[in-house]
Design goal:
Oligomer: single chain
Strand content: 5-15%
Helix content: over 70%
Largest sheet: 6 strands, mixed
Shape: globular
Number of helices: 17
Length: 607
Protein backbone atom coordinates (compact mmCIF):
# COMPACT_ATOMS: atom_id res chain seq x y z
CA UNK A 1 0.00 0.00 0.00
CA UNK A 2 2.87 2.34 0.81
CA UNK A 3 4.55 1.61 -2.57
CA UNK A 4 1.31 2.17 -4.42
CA UNK A 5 0.85 5.46 -2.59
CA UNK A 6 4.37 6.65 -3.54
CA UNK A 7 3.82 5.74 -7.19
CA UNK A 8 0.59 7.67 -7.28
CA UNK A 9 2.19 10.79 -5.83
CA UNK A 10 5.22 10.58 -8.20
CA UNK A 11 3.05 10.68 -11.34
CA UNK A 12 1.99 14.11 -12.65
CA UNK A 13 -1.70 14.66 -12.37
CA UNK A 14 -3.85 14.96 -15.50
CA UNK A 15 -4.32 18.63 -14.71
CA UNK A 16 -0.54 19.16 -14.53
CA UNK A 17 -0.05 17.38 -17.90
CA UNK A 18 -2.68 19.54 -19.57
CA UNK A 19 -1.11 22.69 -18.07
CA UNK A 20 2.33 21.80 -19.47
CA UNK A 21 0.90 21.12 -22.89
CA UNK A 22 -1.01 24.37 -22.74
CA UNK A 23 2.12 26.34 -21.89
CA UNK A 24 4.06 24.67 -24.71
CA UNK A 25 1.24 25.32 -27.16
CA UNK A 26 0.97 28.95 -26.05
CA UNK A 27 4.74 29.46 -26.48
CA UNK A 28 4.72 27.83 -29.92
CA UNK A 29 1.68 29.85 -31.04
CA UNK A 30 3.18 33.13 -29.82
CA UNK A 31 6.53 32.36 -31.48
CA UNK A 32 4.83 31.51 -34.79
CA UNK A 33 2.65 34.58 -34.76
CA UNK A 34 5.52 36.90 -33.85
CA UNK A 35 7.66 35.37 -36.62
CA UNK A 36 4.91 36.01 -39.17
CA UNK A 37 4.37 39.56 -37.90
CA UNK A 38 8.10 40.32 -37.99
CA UNK A 39 8.31 38.86 -41.52
CA UNK A 40 5.50 41.12 -42.69
CA UNK A 41 7.03 44.13 -40.95
CA UNK A 42 10.44 43.33 -42.44
CA UNK A 43 8.95 43.10 -45.93
CA UNK A 44 7.19 46.46 -45.63
CA UNK A 45 10.30 48.07 -44.19
CA UNK A 46 12.40 46.71 -47.08
CA UNK A 47 10.06 48.26 -49.65
CA UNK A 48 10.14 51.56 -47.76
CA UNK A 49 13.95 51.56 -47.57
CA UNK A 50 14.15 50.82 -51.31
CA UNK A 51 12.05 53.94 -51.94
CA UNK A 52 14.28 56.00 -49.63
CA UNK A 53 17.33 54.81 -51.55
CA UNK A 54 15.52 55.59 -54.80
CA UNK A 55 14.98 59.19 -53.65
CA UNK A 56 18.69 59.54 -52.89
CA UNK A 57 19.62 57.96 -56.23
CA UNK A 58 17.20 60.33 -57.96
CA UNK A 59 19.01 63.35 -56.53
CA UNK A 60 22.26 61.89 -57.86
CA UNK A 61 20.65 61.38 -61.26
CA UNK A 62 19.33 64.94 -61.28
CA UNK A 63 22.79 66.28 -60.36
CA UNK A 64 24.41 64.22 -63.14
CA UNK A 65 21.95 65.55 -65.72
CA UNK A 66 22.61 69.11 -64.54
CA UNK A 67 26.34 68.42 -64.87
CA UNK A 68 25.80 67.33 -68.47
CA UNK A 69 23.82 70.51 -69.14
CA UNK A 70 26.48 72.78 -67.60
CA UNK A 71 29.23 71.08 -69.60
CA UNK A 72 27.23 71.51 -72.80
CA UNK A 73 26.49 75.14 -71.90
CA UNK A 74 30.17 75.85 -71.18
CA UNK A 75 31.02 74.92 -74.76
CA UNK A 76 29.09 78.01 -75.94
CA UNK A 77 31.29 80.64 -74.20
CA UNK A 78 34.37 78.50 -74.98
CA UNK A 79 33.50 78.45 -78.70
CA UNK A 80 32.80 82.18 -78.60
CA UNK A 81 36.18 82.86 -76.99
CA UNK A 82 38.04 80.77 -79.58
CA UNK A 83 36.42 82.79 -82.36
CA UNK A 84 37.40 86.20 -80.94
CA UNK A 85 40.55 88.21 -81.59
CA UNK A 86 43.25 88.72 -78.97
CA UNK A 87 42.83 90.25 -76.44
CA UNK A 88 39.43 88.91 -75.48
CA UNK A 89 36.76 91.42 -74.57
CA UNK A 90 35.64 91.72 -70.96
CA UNK A 91 32.18 90.35 -71.85
CA UNK A 92 33.64 87.20 -73.41
CA UNK A 93 35.98 86.59 -70.47
CA UNK A 94 33.17 87.18 -67.97
CA UNK A 95 30.79 84.80 -69.76
CA UNK A 96 33.45 82.07 -69.95
CA UNK A 97 34.41 82.51 -66.28
CA UNK A 98 30.76 82.35 -65.18
CA UNK A 99 30.09 79.23 -67.28
CA UNK A 100 33.12 77.49 -65.78
CA UNK A 101 32.06 78.49 -62.28
CA UNK A 102 28.60 77.01 -62.87
CA UNK A 103 30.10 73.76 -64.20
CA UNK A 104 32.46 73.47 -61.23
CA UNK A 105 29.59 74.07 -58.80
CA UNK A 106 27.56 71.31 -60.50
CA UNK A 107 30.52 68.90 -60.30
CA UNK A 108 31.00 69.71 -56.60
CA UNK A 109 27.31 69.09 -55.86
CA UNK A 110 27.38 65.75 -57.69
CA UNK A 111 30.53 64.70 -55.80
CA UNK A 112 28.84 65.50 -52.47
CA UNK A 113 25.76 63.56 -53.52
CA UNK A 114 27.83 60.47 -54.44
CA UNK A 115 29.85 60.74 -51.23
CA UNK A 116 26.64 60.74 -49.18
CA UNK A 117 25.20 57.62 -50.85
CA UNK A 118 25.83 54.02 -49.88
CA UNK A 119 25.56 51.93 -53.02
CA UNK A 120 27.68 49.15 -54.61
CA UNK A 121 28.75 51.32 -57.56
CA UNK A 122 29.18 54.69 -55.83
CA UNK A 123 32.97 54.27 -55.60
CA UNK A 124 33.14 53.45 -59.32
CA UNK A 125 30.92 56.41 -60.15
CA UNK A 126 33.11 58.69 -58.02
CA UNK A 127 36.17 57.50 -59.94
CA UNK A 128 34.37 58.25 -63.22
CA UNK A 129 33.55 61.72 -61.94
CA UNK A 130 37.17 62.38 -60.91
CA UNK A 131 38.36 61.25 -64.34
CA UNK A 132 35.87 63.59 -66.02
CA UNK A 133 37.11 66.45 -63.83
CA UNK A 134 40.70 65.79 -64.86
CA UNK A 135 39.78 65.71 -68.54
CA UNK A 136 37.82 68.93 -68.12
CA UNK A 137 40.82 70.66 -66.54
CA UNK A 138 43.03 69.61 -69.45
CA UNK A 139 40.44 70.68 -72.02
CA UNK A 140 40.12 74.09 -70.37
CA UNK A 141 43.89 74.55 -70.30
CA UNK A 142 43.99 73.78 -74.02
CA UNK A 143 41.28 76.39 -74.72
CA UNK A 144 43.13 78.96 -72.61
CA UNK A 145 46.23 78.33 -74.70
CA UNK A 146 44.33 78.72 -77.96
CA UNK A 147 42.68 82.02 -77.05
CA UNK A 148 46.16 83.51 -76.46
CA UNK A 149 47.05 82.83 -80.11
CA UNK A 150 46.07 85.51 -82.69
CA UNK A 151 42.89 84.45 -84.49
CA UNK A 152 44.61 84.45 -87.90
CA UNK A 153 47.05 81.80 -86.63
CA UNK A 154 44.38 79.45 -85.24
CA UNK A 155 43.81 76.46 -87.51
CA UNK A 156 40.55 74.58 -87.98
CA UNK A 157 42.21 71.42 -86.68
CA UNK A 158 43.23 73.25 -83.52
CA UNK A 159 39.66 74.43 -82.90
CA UNK A 160 38.14 71.04 -83.72
CA UNK A 161 40.51 69.32 -81.30
CA UNK A 162 39.53 71.74 -78.52
CA UNK A 163 35.83 71.16 -79.19
CA UNK A 164 36.21 67.37 -79.29
CA UNK A 165 37.99 67.38 -75.93
CA UNK A 166 35.07 69.21 -74.35
CA UNK A 167 32.52 66.97 -76.08
CA UNK A 168 34.24 63.79 -74.87
CA UNK A 169 33.61 64.66 -71.21
CA UNK A 170 29.80 64.36 -71.27
CA UNK A 171 29.69 60.59 -72.12
CA UNK A 172 31.79 59.91 -69.00
CA UNK A 173 28.78 60.92 -66.88
CA UNK A 174 26.37 58.50 -68.61
CA UNK A 175 27.32 55.49 -66.38
CA UNK A 176 26.43 57.56 -63.30
CA UNK A 177 23.05 58.38 -64.85
CA UNK A 178 22.38 54.73 -65.75
CA UNK A 179 23.31 53.42 -62.27
CA UNK A 180 21.08 56.00 -60.60
CA UNK A 181 18.28 55.26 -63.06
CA UNK A 182 18.25 51.56 -62.14
CA UNK A 183 18.20 52.36 -58.42
CA UNK A 184 15.24 54.73 -58.86
CA UNK A 185 13.21 52.24 -60.91
CA UNK A 186 13.92 49.52 -58.35
CA UNK A 187 12.36 51.72 -55.70
CA UNK A 188 9.40 52.88 -57.81
CA UNK A 189 8.70 51.35 -61.22
CA UNK A 190 6.03 53.97 -61.94
CA UNK A 191 8.79 56.58 -62.34
CA UNK A 192 10.27 54.82 -65.40
CA UNK A 193 8.52 56.83 -68.13
CA UNK A 194 9.21 60.28 -66.70
CA UNK A 195 12.83 59.28 -66.03
CA UNK A 196 13.28 58.13 -69.60
CA UNK A 197 11.86 61.38 -70.96
CA UNK A 198 14.13 63.42 -68.67
CA UNK A 199 17.15 61.46 -69.90
CA UNK A 200 16.13 61.84 -73.54
CA UNK A 201 15.69 65.58 -72.98
CA UNK A 202 19.19 65.76 -71.48
CA UNK A 203 20.62 63.92 -74.48
CA UNK A 204 18.67 66.25 -76.80
CA UNK A 205 20.27 69.26 -75.07
CA UNK A 206 23.70 67.69 -75.49
CA UNK A 207 23.15 66.93 -79.18
CA UNK A 208 21.72 70.42 -79.76
CA UNK A 209 24.80 71.96 -78.16
CA UNK A 210 27.05 69.64 -80.15
CA UNK A 211 25.32 70.71 -83.36
CA UNK A 212 26.19 74.33 -82.58
CA UNK A 213 29.80 73.39 -81.83
CA UNK A 214 30.15 71.89 -85.31
CA UNK A 215 30.20 75.45 -86.70
CA UNK A 216 33.04 76.71 -84.47
CA UNK A 217 35.88 75.76 -86.81
CA UNK A 218 34.35 77.55 -89.81
CA UNK A 219 32.98 80.57 -87.94
CA UNK A 220 36.14 80.99 -85.86
CA UNK A 221 38.43 81.05 -88.94
CA UNK A 222 35.96 82.93 -91.21
CA UNK A 223 35.87 80.25 -93.89
CA UNK A 224 33.24 78.07 -95.53
CA UNK A 225 32.20 74.74 -94.09
CA UNK A 226 34.27 71.75 -95.24
CA UNK A 227 32.72 68.53 -96.53
CA UNK A 228 33.69 66.77 -93.30
CA UNK A 229 31.98 69.47 -91.24
CA UNK A 230 28.88 69.23 -93.43
CA UNK A 231 28.81 65.49 -92.77
CA UNK A 232 29.13 65.88 -88.99
CA UNK A 233 26.39 68.53 -89.01
CA UNK A 234 24.06 66.18 -90.89
CA UNK A 235 24.86 63.36 -88.45
CA UNK A 236 24.09 65.59 -85.46
CA UNK A 237 20.82 66.67 -87.04
CA UNK A 238 19.94 63.02 -87.62
CA UNK A 239 20.51 62.19 -83.96
CA UNK A 240 18.43 65.19 -82.90
CA UNK A 241 15.61 63.98 -85.12
CA UNK A 242 15.86 60.49 -83.64
CA UNK A 243 15.59 61.88 -80.11
CA UNK A 244 12.61 63.98 -81.18
CA UNK A 245 10.68 60.93 -82.34
CA UNK A 246 11.61 58.96 -79.25
CA UNK A 247 10.15 61.74 -77.10
CA UNK A 248 7.09 61.87 -79.34
CA UNK A 249 6.55 58.14 -78.84
CA UNK A 250 6.54 58.57 -75.04
CA UNK A 251 4.14 61.49 -75.27
CA UNK A 252 1.84 59.45 -77.52
CA UNK A 253 1.62 56.72 -74.88
CA UNK A 254 1.35 59.24 -72.04
CA UNK A 255 -0.45 62.34 -73.38
CA UNK A 256 -1.03 63.63 -69.86
CA UNK A 257 2.69 64.18 -69.19
CA UNK A 258 4.10 67.65 -69.88
CA UNK A 259 2.50 68.11 -73.31
CA UNK A 260 2.47 71.90 -72.96
CA UNK A 261 6.12 71.96 -71.91
CA UNK A 262 7.15 69.87 -74.92
CA UNK A 263 5.11 72.14 -77.20
CA UNK A 264 7.42 74.99 -76.18
CA UNK A 265 10.40 72.82 -77.14
CA UNK A 266 8.86 72.31 -80.56
CA UNK A 267 8.25 76.02 -81.03
CA UNK A 268 11.50 77.43 -79.63
CA UNK A 269 14.03 74.85 -80.68
CA UNK A 270 12.72 72.55 -83.40
CA UNK A 271 11.11 75.44 -85.25
CA UNK A 272 13.15 78.57 -84.47
CA UNK A 273 16.46 77.04 -83.37
CA UNK A 274 16.90 74.57 -86.21
CA UNK A 275 15.74 77.19 -88.71
CA UNK A 276 18.49 79.51 -87.48
CA UNK A 277 21.06 76.69 -87.72
CA UNK A 278 19.94 75.97 -91.28
CA UNK A 279 20.33 79.66 -92.22
CA UNK A 280 23.84 79.87 -90.74
CA UNK A 281 24.77 76.63 -92.49
CA UNK A 282 23.54 77.97 -95.81
CA UNK A 283 25.53 81.17 -95.43
CA UNK A 284 28.63 79.33 -94.18
CA UNK A 285 28.47 77.03 -97.20
CA UNK A 286 28.70 80.01 -99.59
CA UNK A 287 30.87 82.70 -98.04
CA UNK A 288 32.82 82.39 -94.78
CA UNK A 289 32.80 86.15 -94.28
CA UNK A 290 29.00 86.42 -94.50
CA UNK A 291 28.46 84.56 -91.23
CA UNK A 292 28.08 85.52 -87.58
CA UNK A 293 31.03 85.29 -85.24
CA UNK A 294 31.17 82.38 -82.83
CA UNK A 295 30.07 84.75 -80.05
CA UNK A 296 27.13 86.12 -82.05
CA UNK A 297 26.11 82.59 -82.99
CA UNK A 298 26.22 81.41 -79.36
CA UNK A 299 24.30 84.45 -78.06
CA UNK A 300 21.42 83.76 -80.43
CA UNK A 301 21.44 79.94 -80.57
CA UNK A 302 21.95 79.00 -76.90
CA UNK A 303 18.77 80.73 -75.57
CA UNK A 304 16.72 78.70 -78.07
CA UNK A 305 17.71 75.54 -76.16
CA UNK A 306 16.35 76.75 -72.79
CA UNK A 307 12.97 75.14 -73.46
CA UNK A 308 14.69 71.73 -73.59
CA UNK A 309 16.01 72.27 -70.05
CA UNK A 310 12.56 73.36 -68.91
CA UNK A 311 11.08 70.15 -70.31
CA UNK A 312 13.80 68.06 -68.64
CA UNK A 313 13.16 69.78 -65.30
CA UNK A 314 9.41 69.24 -65.66
CA UNK A 315 10.01 65.49 -66.10
CA UNK A 316 12.39 65.42 -63.14
CA UNK A 317 9.85 67.26 -60.98
CA UNK A 318 7.21 64.72 -62.02
CA UNK A 319 9.55 61.90 -60.97
CA UNK A 320 10.29 63.60 -57.65
CA UNK A 321 6.56 63.95 -56.92
CA UNK A 322 5.98 60.28 -57.75
CA UNK A 323 8.82 59.17 -55.44
CA UNK A 324 7.59 61.43 -52.64
CA UNK A 325 4.07 60.04 -52.90
CA UNK A 326 5.39 56.47 -53.04
CA UNK A 327 7.52 57.07 -49.94
CA UNK A 328 4.58 58.57 -48.04
CA UNK A 329 2.34 55.63 -48.98
CA UNK A 330 4.90 53.05 -47.87
CA UNK A 331 5.62 54.93 -44.65
CA UNK A 332 1.93 54.91 -43.82
CA UNK A 333 1.68 51.24 -44.74
CA UNK A 334 4.66 50.42 -42.52
CA UNK A 335 3.12 52.28 -39.60
CA UNK A 336 -0.21 50.54 -40.08
CA UNK A 337 1.54 47.18 -40.30
CA UNK A 338 3.33 47.82 -36.99
CA UNK A 339 0.11 48.96 -35.31
CA UNK A 340 -1.82 45.99 -36.65
CA UNK A 341 0.97 43.64 -35.58
CA UNK A 342 1.03 45.00 -32.03
CA UNK A 343 -2.74 44.97 -31.78
CA UNK A 344 -2.90 41.42 -33.10
CA UNK A 345 -0.28 40.27 -30.62
CA UNK A 346 -2.22 41.79 -27.74
CA UNK A 347 -5.39 40.23 -29.04
CA UNK A 348 -3.70 36.83 -29.22
CA UNK A 349 -2.55 37.07 -25.62
CA UNK A 350 -6.03 38.08 -24.55
CA UNK A 351 -7.55 35.21 -26.49
CA UNK A 352 -5.14 32.74 -24.88
CA UNK A 353 -5.99 34.05 -21.41
CA UNK A 354 -9.70 33.79 -22.14
CA UNK A 355 -9.20 30.36 -23.65
CA UNK A 356 -7.44 29.19 -20.51
CA UNK A 357 -10.11 30.69 -18.32
CA UNK A 358 -13.19 29.59 -20.21
CA UNK A 359 -12.01 26.37 -21.91
CA UNK A 360 -8.99 24.78 -20.24
CA UNK A 361 -10.05 25.48 -16.70
CA UNK A 362 -13.54 23.94 -17.17
CA UNK A 363 -11.92 21.05 -19.03
CA UNK A 364 -9.56 20.40 -16.09
CA UNK A 365 -12.48 20.51 -13.73
CA UNK A 366 -14.37 18.08 -15.94
CA UNK A 367 -11.32 15.75 -16.00
CA UNK A 368 -11.09 15.81 -12.26
CA UNK A 369 -14.79 15.12 -12.02
CA UNK A 370 -14.54 12.20 -14.46
CA UNK A 371 -11.55 10.79 -12.56
CA UNK A 372 -13.44 11.07 -9.34
CA UNK A 373 -16.43 9.26 -10.85
CA UNK A 374 -14.11 6.53 -12.20
CA UNK A 375 -12.72 6.07 -8.71
CA UNK A 376 -16.20 5.81 -7.36
CA UNK A 377 -16.56 9.31 -5.94
CA UNK A 378 -20.09 10.20 -7.05
CA UNK A 379 -20.52 13.19 -4.86
CA UNK A 380 -18.61 15.60 -7.11
CA UNK A 381 -20.09 18.34 -9.27
CA UNK A 382 -19.75 18.16 -13.11
CA UNK A 383 -19.10 21.69 -14.45
CA UNK A 384 -20.61 22.98 -17.71
CA UNK A 385 -18.11 24.46 -20.21
CA UNK A 386 -18.75 27.27 -22.64
CA UNK A 387 -16.54 27.64 -25.77
CA UNK A 388 -15.95 31.23 -27.13
CA UNK A 389 -15.61 31.93 -30.92
CA UNK A 390 -12.78 34.53 -30.79
CA UNK A 391 -10.21 31.92 -31.88
CA UNK A 392 -11.30 32.41 -35.51
CA UNK A 393 -9.57 35.80 -35.57
CA UNK A 394 -6.20 34.10 -35.43
CA UNK A 395 -6.81 32.37 -38.75
CA UNK A 396 -8.00 35.66 -40.23
CA UNK A 397 -4.65 37.18 -39.22
CA UNK A 398 -2.81 34.33 -41.00
CA UNK A 399 -4.84 34.98 -44.17
CA UNK A 400 -3.89 38.66 -44.00
CA UNK A 401 -0.23 37.73 -43.64
CA UNK A 402 -0.36 35.28 -46.55
CA UNK A 403 -1.95 37.87 -48.86
CA UNK A 404 0.66 40.43 -47.86
CA UNK A 405 3.54 38.04 -48.66
CA UNK A 406 1.90 37.15 -51.96
CA UNK A 407 1.77 40.84 -52.87
CA UNK A 408 5.43 41.24 -51.94
CA UNK A 409 6.50 38.33 -54.19
CA UNK A 410 4.47 39.79 -57.07
CA UNK A 411 6.15 43.15 -56.56
CA UNK A 412 9.62 41.56 -56.61
CA UNK A 413 8.80 39.75 -59.86
CA UNK A 414 7.64 43.02 -61.39
CA UNK A 415 10.91 44.66 -60.34
CA UNK A 416 12.93 41.89 -62.00
CA UNK A 417 10.87 42.22 -65.20
CA UNK A 418 11.46 45.97 -65.31
CA UNK A 419 15.20 45.55 -64.78
CA UNK A 420 15.27 43.01 -67.65
CA UNK A 421 13.38 45.43 -69.91
CA UNK A 422 15.81 48.24 -69.04
CA UNK A 423 18.74 46.01 -70.00
CA UNK A 424 17.10 45.24 -73.37
CA UNK A 425 16.36 48.92 -73.95
CA UNK A 426 19.98 49.82 -73.24
CA UNK A 427 21.28 47.42 -75.97
CA UNK A 428 18.65 47.59 -78.70
CA UNK A 429 17.56 50.26 -81.16
CA UNK A 430 13.88 50.83 -80.45
CA UNK A 431 12.76 51.28 -84.07
CA UNK A 432 14.67 48.57 -85.96
CA UNK A 433 15.42 46.04 -83.24
CA UNK A 434 19.11 46.02 -84.22
CA UNK A 435 21.96 46.56 -81.80
CA UNK A 436 22.56 50.16 -80.81
CA UNK A 437 25.99 51.82 -80.85
CA UNK A 438 26.76 51.04 -77.22
CA UNK A 439 25.98 47.32 -77.50
CA UNK A 440 27.88 47.09 -80.80
CA UNK A 441 30.99 48.68 -79.32
CA UNK A 442 30.78 46.36 -76.32
CA UNK A 443 30.69 43.27 -78.56
CA UNK A 444 33.65 44.57 -80.57
CA UNK A 445 35.65 45.04 -77.37
CA UNK A 446 34.76 41.50 -76.32
CA UNK A 447 35.84 40.13 -79.70
CA UNK A 448 39.14 42.04 -79.51
CA UNK A 449 39.89 40.61 -76.04
CA UNK A 450 39.62 36.95 -77.15
CA UNK A 451 42.63 34.97 -78.36
CA UNK A 452 42.74 34.86 -82.21
CA UNK A 453 43.23 31.67 -84.23
CA UNK A 454 47.02 31.46 -84.86
CA UNK A 455 46.98 29.64 -88.23
CA UNK A 456 45.96 30.99 -90.62
CA UNK A 457 45.65 34.56 -89.24
CA UNK A 458 42.08 35.81 -89.17
CA UNK A 459 40.88 39.19 -90.41
CA UNK A 460 38.43 41.64 -88.94
CA UNK A 461 36.32 43.53 -91.48
CA UNK A 462 34.22 46.60 -90.77
CA UNK A 463 31.33 47.37 -93.13
CA UNK A 464 29.99 50.88 -92.58
CA UNK A 465 27.02 51.87 -94.72
CA UNK A 466 24.07 54.22 -94.81
CA UNK A 467 21.00 54.80 -96.94
CA UNK A 468 21.43 57.19 -99.83
CA UNK A 469 19.41 60.40 -99.74
CA UNK A 470 17.34 59.24 -96.81
CA UNK A 471 16.14 62.79 -96.15
CA UNK A 472 14.39 62.73 -99.52
CA UNK A 473 12.46 59.66 -98.45
CA UNK A 474 11.26 61.47 -95.33
CA UNK A 475 10.43 64.56 -97.34
CA UNK A 476 8.56 62.57 -100.02
CA UNK A 477 6.80 59.86 -98.01
CA UNK A 478 6.83 61.40 -94.54
CA UNK A 479 8.59 60.18 -91.44
CA UNK A 480 6.22 57.21 -91.20
CA UNK A 481 7.38 56.11 -94.64
CA UNK A 482 10.99 56.64 -93.57
CA UNK A 483 10.44 54.52 -90.44
CA UNK A 484 8.91 51.72 -92.52
CA UNK A 485 11.89 51.87 -94.86
CA UNK A 486 14.31 51.66 -91.91
CA UNK A 487 12.44 48.65 -90.50
CA UNK A 488 12.51 46.85 -93.87
CA UNK A 489 16.17 47.77 -94.31
CA UNK A 490 16.94 46.32 -90.86
CA UNK A 491 15.17 43.05 -91.80
CA UNK A 492 17.40 42.76 -94.87
CA UNK A 493 20.47 43.41 -92.69
CA UNK A 494 19.47 40.63 -90.29
CA UNK A 495 19.00 38.23 -93.18
CA UNK A 496 22.45 39.04 -94.56
CA UNK A 497 24.60 39.28 -91.40
CA UNK A 498 22.76 37.73 -88.47
CA UNK A 499 25.56 35.20 -87.80
CA UNK A 500 28.45 37.71 -87.87
CA UNK A 501 30.87 38.13 -84.98
CA UNK A 502 29.42 41.36 -83.57
CA UNK A 503 26.04 41.45 -85.26
CA UNK A 504 24.40 44.30 -87.13
CA UNK A 505 24.03 47.70 -85.48
CA UNK A 506 22.24 50.91 -86.19
CA UNK A 507 24.71 53.61 -85.19
CA UNK A 508 22.22 56.44 -85.59
CA UNK A 509 19.85 57.89 -88.18
CA UNK A 510 20.37 55.98 -91.43
CA UNK A 511 23.91 54.79 -90.57
CA UNK A 512 24.58 51.08 -89.97
CA UNK A 513 27.62 48.90 -89.28
CA UNK A 514 28.65 45.24 -89.41
CA UNK A 515 31.82 43.67 -87.98
CA UNK A 516 32.87 40.34 -89.53
CA UNK A 517 35.72 38.03 -88.49
CA UNK A 518 36.80 35.79 -91.40
CA UNK A 519 39.86 34.05 -92.73
CA UNK A 520 39.41 35.82 -96.08
CA UNK A 521 38.47 39.53 -96.29
CA UNK A 522 36.82 38.85 -99.64
CA UNK A 523 33.90 37.33 -97.75
CA UNK A 524 32.99 40.74 -96.35
CA UNK A 525 33.09 42.29 -99.84
CA UNK A 526 30.97 39.46 -101.26
CA UNK A 527 28.39 39.76 -98.50
CA UNK A 528 28.14 43.54 -98.98
CA UNK A 529 27.79 43.08 -102.76
CA UNK A 530 25.00 40.54 -102.30
CA UNK A 531 23.25 42.80 -99.85
CA UNK A 532 23.51 45.83 -102.18
CA UNK A 533 21.94 43.85 -105.03
CA UNK A 534 19.25 42.47 -102.74
CA UNK A 535 18.47 45.98 -101.55
CA UNK A 536 18.24 47.30 -105.13
CA UNK A 537 15.66 44.63 -106.01
CA UNK A 538 13.56 45.15 -102.89
CA UNK A 539 10.43 47.26 -103.12
CA UNK A 540 9.68 49.51 -100.15
CA UNK A 541 6.17 50.66 -99.27
CA UNK A 542 5.19 53.91 -97.61
CA UNK A 543 2.39 54.25 -95.08
CA UNK A 544 -0.07 55.16 -97.86
CA UNK A 545 0.95 52.15 -99.97
CA UNK A 546 3.26 54.01 -102.32
CA UNK A 547 6.11 51.87 -103.63
CA UNK A 548 9.69 53.04 -103.90
CA UNK A 549 13.22 51.68 -103.74
CA UNK A 550 16.36 52.73 -101.92
CA UNK A 551 20.10 52.31 -102.34
CA UNK A 552 23.01 52.45 -99.96
CA UNK A 553 26.70 53.35 -100.00
CA UNK A 554 29.31 51.14 -98.34
CA UNK A 555 32.81 51.52 -96.93
CA UNK A 556 34.72 48.31 -96.11
CA UNK A 557 37.95 48.33 -94.09
CA UNK A 558 40.12 45.39 -93.00
CA UNK A 559 42.60 44.73 -90.21
CA UNK A 560 44.47 41.62 -89.12
CA UNK A 561 43.17 40.04 -85.95
CA UNK A 562 45.12 40.92 -82.83
CA UNK A 563 44.91 42.67 -79.48
CA UNK A 564 44.89 46.22 -80.82
CA UNK A 565 43.50 48.48 -78.07
CA UNK A 566 42.10 50.82 -80.72
CA UNK A 567 40.66 48.17 -83.05
CA UNK A 568 37.18 49.69 -83.15
CA UNK A 569 38.40 53.26 -83.56
CA UNK A 570 40.86 52.31 -86.31
CA UNK A 571 38.33 50.29 -88.31
CA UNK A 572 35.60 52.91 -87.87
CA UNK A 573 37.96 55.65 -89.01
CA UNK A 574 39.00 53.73 -92.12
CA UNK A 575 35.49 52.56 -92.98
CA UNK A 576 34.09 56.07 -92.45
CA UNK A 577 36.65 57.52 -94.88
CA UNK A 578 35.83 54.80 -97.40
CA UNK A 579 32.11 55.43 -97.01
CA UNK A 580 32.74 59.10 -97.73
CA UNK A 581 34.65 58.09 -100.90
CA UNK A 582 31.73 55.88 -101.95
CA UNK A 583 29.38 58.83 -101.61
CA UNK A 584 31.77 61.04 -103.52
CA UNK A 585 31.86 58.43 -106.31
CA UNK A 586 28.13 58.81 -106.90
CA UNK A 587 26.67 56.63 -104.10
CA UNK A 588 25.05 53.20 -104.55
CA UNK A 589 28.50 51.60 -104.59
CA UNK A 590 31.08 49.92 -102.36
CA UNK A 591 34.41 51.49 -101.48
CA UNK A 592 36.84 48.71 -100.47
CA UNK A 593 40.19 49.25 -98.77
CA UNK A 594 43.04 48.05 -100.95
CA UNK A 595 44.73 45.04 -99.32
CA UNK A 596 47.90 45.90 -97.42
CA UNK A 597 47.23 49.62 -97.33
CA UNK A 598 47.36 51.33 -93.99
CA UNK A 599 45.54 54.34 -95.44
CA UNK A 600 41.98 53.79 -96.77
CA UNK A 601 42.74 53.88 -100.49
CA UNK A 602 39.53 52.76 -102.11
CA UNK A 603 38.54 50.43 -104.87
CA UNK A 604 35.01 51.32 -106.01
CA UNK A 605 32.69 48.37 -106.75
CA UNK A 606 29.29 48.76 -108.42
CA UNK A 607 28.42 45.38 -109.97
Amino acid sequence: MQGSENTRHSRPSPRAQIGQRLHAGVAAACALFLALAVSLLWSQNGAYQDTRRAQSAFETLRSALVDMEKLSFERGPSNAAMGEEVPLSADVVSALRQARHNTDAAFTHLAKQLAGERCPRCAIDMAELDHARSDLARARANIDRIVQIPRSQRSARMLDDAINRMVAIVPQLIPIVNDSNLAVVKGDSNALDSLQMAFLAAMLREQAGLLGSRFTGALGTRRTLSDAEQFTIERSEGRIEQLYWLLQSYLTDHPEIAVNTFRRVQQQYFSQGLAYVADVRRRASIDGNDTPTTREFALKYVPMMHSIIEFRDAMLDSTADELHQRSADLRLRLLLTAIIGLASTGLLVLMLVLFRRYVIRPFNEATQAATAIAQGDLGGRVPKCRYPAEIRKFFEAIDILRESNRARVQLEREHQRLISELTTMAETDSLTGLLNRRAFESRVRTLNSTVPDPAPPSWVSMILFDIDYFKRINDTYGHDGGDLALIKFADLCRGAWQQTSAGVARLGGEEFAVLIETKDPAYAVDSATRFRKKLASTVMHAADGSAFSITASFGIAFMKRGHQPDLLAALMRRADALLYQAKAAGRDCIAVQSMGDEQPLAEILRD
